[in-house]
Amino acid sequence: MSGIPHTELERWRTEFPILQTRTYLNSCSLGALSRRSMGYLGEFQALWNTMGASAWYELWMGRLGELKQSVATMWNARESEIALSPSVSGALSSIASSIDYRTRNRVVVADLDFPTLVYQWLARPDVEVVRVPSDDGIGVPPERWAQYVDERTAIVATSHVFYGTGYVQDLSGAAAAARKAGALFLVDGYQAAGQIPVDPRSLDADVYVAGPLKWLCGGPGIAFLWVKQEKIAELRPTIASWFGARDQFLFRNDEFEYREDAGRFAMGTPAVPTAYTALGGLEIFAEAGHQKIYERIAALTADLVGLAEEAGFEMKIARDPARRSGIILVRHDDAPLAVHRLAQQNIIVDYRAGYVRVSPHFYNTPDESRLFVEALKGC
Fold first, then answer.
1. For 228, how many CA atoms within 13 A lie in the half-sphere containing its CB?
2. pLDDT digit string (tens) for 349-364?
3. Are 317 and 166 spatial neighbours (Cβ–Cβ below 8 Å)?
């Protein structure tokens, strides 16, 4: 226990009811729900029951603004650079529709990226998708991107953290290659936001997408989209919504003008219930301290990796600890069965392609890691 920093964060365990009955080590699939988020969800329901539609104008729009400001603060960004979308897929689709592929029809991604990121362009017959390969199936060397990005590239799109290996990319090579070619640079941070520091501008990104579903403990139904201020005006999505229109409350249906801020990428009415639960998660993160959370996750990850190594398990993780995140894949001959048997012992993890996937969060403890490793031995 002495090697795990910020033990004072364990007081937050009582805020998450699932931790009282389960050893929950699956935050990279779905973050735990907090009492604060549940309270805010109750507030939303009460307002719906007492105010009806008037809650939209008097309170809910304000809460949506609070959420965007909270995301902007967390990412060292401006609120005008933040848009809300119903999902990462929706956010990606809006950006993908903003690009003119007539003179540049290549999109460069990594072999290890999550399918959703690639599907946006595989679905387009006018686009050629180029994949950057991985030598070890774990990460991509930053210098490799330059070999696949050229003047035909419209956009370079890849993950901050690879979902299947937990590898934290050094994005400098991808960013530099995109800049040199004059291509847009998009980063999918769904598995990054909440477990490692995120500052899209410092990554030299043009677009960054994430959401509260996983490490930010806010649930499904909303995604966060950051677009660099300098890029907003030149990106004109052809997937449009009322929330993306300038002066939306003029209710014009004879013309469409884009909002001047990142709101132009909004994809319809936001899921207000998730806005409330997401605010609860973000508030807890701010109060607990982002940097403390990142440091504790890193320490818990190192501790769990050490325990698994001592137990003789093979893992699919970065060799360099600096490139590891809080996602650990442990080799198992029958990973689905192992996950099922662990669940019968109230230990909740997941599996991916022959590996048990475990993801400790700041609210977990070293004792829970030991419990998991010991239980996995018997599976």
1. 16
2. 999 999 999 999 999 9
3. yes
